[in-house]
Description:
single chain, Rossmann fold, eight-stranded mixed beta sheet, elongated
Amino acid sequence: MAEKTVAVVGLGYVGLPLACLCAKRGHDVIGLEKDSKKIALVNSGKSPIKDSVLEEQLPSLEGKIKATSDAKELKQADVILVCVPTPAIQNKPDLSFVESACKELATVLQKNQLVVIESTVYPGTVETIVKPLLEKSGLKAGKDFFLGHCPERIDPGNRRFTIEKIPRVLACLSKEGTEKAKAFYQSIIGAPIVVLSSVKSAEAVKVVENTFRDVNIAFVNELAKSFDKMGIDLLEVIKGASTKPFGYIPFYPGPGVGGHCIPQDPYYLIERARQSGFKHRFLSLAREINKSMPLYVVSLVESELEELGIKIAGAKIAALGVSYKPDVDDPRESPALKVIAVLKEKGTKLSIFDPLLPSHSNVSSLEEAVEGADCILLLTHHSSLLKSLSPSYIKKTGAKLVVDTRNSLDKEGIIKEGISYKGIGR
């Protein structure tokens, strides 16, 4: 494909990596963003997001991505990619960011532009919400401009499956739009581009992917609760089950699920089905189980402390890790935040430390966090924390208990040092 001018609406965890990829592939890139600090950083070749891949890429892309808050700049774009947040507020889909973006786009939309919604939406959104809003421009979708959906796929911090290596799925409202969209994505993605027969199907893909993960995580989280009662090590069971070469995919228990996708996307499917007269009991139960895990973590901490003769009120606890996944600085929907909130309600003395989120920490170092701690509570398994938290190091801290919500530490080694250990499901 010849070089195009590509506009990316929203330079967040999805939009910024996509903008970088388009620039790397030789396209001229315009990034529409409201945050003035983010605009300044991107235009100076600096990443506003703590991500090693972006931090490596952006300096070499200085001047190749033009970040701006002026929507008029989008008039010159051939392709417009909408990558704004779609949260769930009180378990209900919130499409206000998509609606706002589309209203703004309608004021600058030009003939023959290709508009692709990458934001996660429920089936029917493009046809019933996005299309009417964009057509307020006076242009008709499929005739004057092209409109479709390609659900974003990105795993922040994953250096193996980077954005250009992940297959993509798309569909547009017209055949010509589909051809244009496929050619564009083939110009930036080095993986298969799969075209579906309808935009509704493409919209359903992302919510199904993340709901699948939510359901399976709920399954192992419930197993963890059960196996804790039976005295069975769930990780050992998963290891055994994983030897079966077909019909089984390993998922692992934890303190809950976080990030912008898994805790929220199931509600897009649940709510859209409800509007159609169907109730997703199974998916709702999975959400209930995963949302219960932070309280379960606190119950484990409390019961393990009691066995050591320590009351949870007044206990010194080192809470390590705040972000929702390791080695990223993203606290969105993190179960660690919920665990910390409940522990505060219980009257514990909390030292909170996340090496990537100093704004969410109340101490400045791991050493300060664990000093005098009765319990070391690992909430996020950052690689730097795992490297430091050896059994011998934990022994030196004087901590009497380790609660490992990620099952990432050396259980046997910790126990050999005479320290109580409790994982999730082990």
